[in-house]
Amino acid sequence: MHVPQLQRTLPSTLHFDRVTSICTTGTALDINELALGQPGLCAVVGSRAAGCNDLLQIATGRQRPTLGHVTLDGQRLTALPASVLRQRLAYGAAQVAPPRDATVRDFIEDGARGPRHRFAFTLSDKQQVARAMEAFGCRPFADAPFSSLGANMRQRARLARVFAQGAALSVMESPVSGLPNAAKGALLQLTRRVVIEEQRACLMSTSNVVLACEYADRILLMRDGLITFDGTPAALMKRSALLRRHNTALAKDAA
Hints:
alpha/beta, 38% helix
């Protein structure tokens, strides 16, 4: 079976300008300036209390900052119509609960259709869904109930759902959480391969700095609402003192 290639999309750039916000964990998020959207896999690394997922919520317009603003390709994120956001920015929540009788195909197509199926499901959308299902190994299970899947296949389906939206920039909360380390590594490796092949940008949160250093192209290390490092994995690995502080903070938050 021939699977059509995903539709190429122009890069989109998110820009944070003097953004501050009180996170859901009570941490004060403070980002003076940050640009996101370069092709590749960018990992936002930190504990739940660090503010990683709040950064992603603000980046997708689901949470408004207390001060400052975020722009997407030079336009205020909060002022963009849903139809424009859909083309440029895809979002995958850590937990998405489909209807009880939904198949894997239903679940992935639902991502392309948008909230409450507000967008028409076009031939291009069908092609995006087919390519995403193939890329993440979901096609053999397309007609199986989503509820029957194990943890690994559920995460694959969630990733396919995000990429099926066809946006230039994908934002995902903890896409490999709940999996054994070997399965996490395999899924991150697959995600990065899809990202590179399609020249997309992917922003994801994780607490695992080791996996981030192995598979990400860029790392944002977060602690107490602040970005303490922004650079390549190779550069981070040279900052042993910073890594020790980060690991200490993770252990403290987990205690």
